[in-house]
């Protein structure tokens, strides 16, 4: 199947399809058990479609579900069939599945990305040289470093979309003063020059969180908060681990991270002060 283009992510399409099917079943007044009995399916099959565990559902299965849910409007049915087809397409990130998790699929369709980083430069703002240094520091095998860098660069193409996402990055001062590679000081200077250049884009804001701040709301660790343009696509907080990551979707947890983000934005240097700070590091 072809690679999705533009603002399209099959990961988000699968998630949206699951949400819509759950809502339609509820509107039809059916439990999972009742729906399964009508179709002579197992309860697990419908549950897996609704949770996204059945990652590539068939249009024929969706048509049967719509029949028992009483969805007869042809325009509505076709829209859901197209959503199903889109959900079956493989994203570009699947070719890097040995080290790239589901996060890339969520990021690909985000309308707003807010991140706090305290150990490494945000991936969307890394230069290829910095990305390679970070991969080496992360014990990536030498033969895999080029693929890691290629994936990092490919992710950054979301800024070339017709409507690019809004990125708000809060970066701990330690990330900026720690050399990317002790033997290659120019790597860090090049990275900071790139960071300053990226702040000239109207959709990108960078704030530096200085050491002088002391303890702050972000001491719990780095995170990324993703928002999406479609109301059916609920926000996600992503917490990176060495292998893939953790995803928080509970509204209370999302609200908590928004509160942390607000505090960090108020504590960090202003965007203008941050650019001045970064410029001094280059000189």
CATH architectural group of the largest domain? 2-Layer Sandwich
Structural class: alpha/beta
What is the string of SSEs from the N terminus onward?
Answer: HHHHHHEHHEHHEEEEHH
Mean pLDDT, as a whole number?
88
By CATH, the topology of the largest domain is Endonuclease, Chain A
Shape: elongated
Low-confidence regions: 1-6
Total number of domains: 2
CATH class membership of the largest domain: Alpha Beta
Question: Using only CA atoms, what is the Rg?
Answer: 22 Å
Taking the alpha carbons of the first and last residues, their distance comes to: 49 Å
The number of helical runs is: 12
Could you give a short account of the major beta sheet? 6 strands, mixed
**Which strand order spans the largest sheet, edge to edge or round the barrel?**
3-2-1-4-5-6
User: How many β-strand runs?
Assistant: 6
Name the beta content range: 5-15%
Percent helix among the residues? 40-55%
Question: What can you tell me about this protein's structure?
Answer:
The chain is about 45% helix and about 10% strand. It has 12 helices and 6 strands. The protein has helices spanning about 10-25, 30-40, 45-50, 60-70, 75-85, 105, 130-135, 145-155, 175, 185-200, 250-265, 270-280; strands at about 110-115, 165-170, 205-210, 225, 235-240, 245-250. A hairpin with a 4-residue loop joins strand 5 (about 235-240) and strand 6 (about 245-250). Helix 1 packs antiparallel against helix 5 (about 75-85). It is elongated and about 70 Å long. It starts with 9 loop residues before the first helix and ends with a helix.
């Amino acid at each position: 199947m072809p690679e999705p283009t533009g603002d399209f992510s099959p990961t988000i399409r699968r998630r949206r399809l699951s949400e819509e099917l759950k809502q339609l079943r509820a509107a039809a007044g059916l439990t999972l058990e009742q729906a399964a009995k009508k179709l002579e399916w197992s309860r697990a099959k419908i549950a897996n479609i609704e949770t996204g565990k059945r990652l590539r559902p068939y249009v024929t299965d969706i048509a049967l579900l719509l029949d028992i849910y009483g969805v007869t409007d042809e325009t509505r049915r076709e829209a859901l069939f197209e959503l199903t087809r889109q959900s079956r397409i493989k994203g570009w990130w699947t070719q890097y599945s040995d080290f790239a998790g589901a996060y890339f699929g969520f990021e690909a369709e985000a309308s707003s990305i807010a991140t706090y980083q305290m150990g490494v430069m945000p991936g969307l703002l890394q230069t290829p040289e910095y990305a390679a240094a970070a991969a080496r520091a992360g014990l990536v095998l030498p033969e895999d470093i080029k693929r890691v860098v290629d994936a990092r660069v490919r992710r950054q193409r979301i800024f070339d979309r017709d409507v690019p996402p809004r990125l708000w990055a809060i970066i701990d001062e330690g990330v900026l003063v720690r050399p990317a590679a002790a033997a290659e000081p120019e790597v860090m200077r090049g990275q900071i020059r790139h960071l300053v250049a990226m702040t000239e884009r109207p959709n990108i804001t960078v704030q530096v969180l200085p050491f002088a701040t002391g303890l702050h709301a972000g001491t719990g660790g780095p995170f990324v908060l993703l928002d999406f343009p479609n109301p059916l696509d609920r926000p996600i907080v992503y917490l990176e681990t060495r292998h893939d990551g953790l995803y928080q979707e509970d509204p209370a947890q999302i609200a908590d991270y928004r509160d942390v983000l607000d505090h960090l934005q108020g504590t960090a240097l202003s965007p203008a002060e941050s650019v001045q700070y970064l410029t001094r590091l280059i000189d």
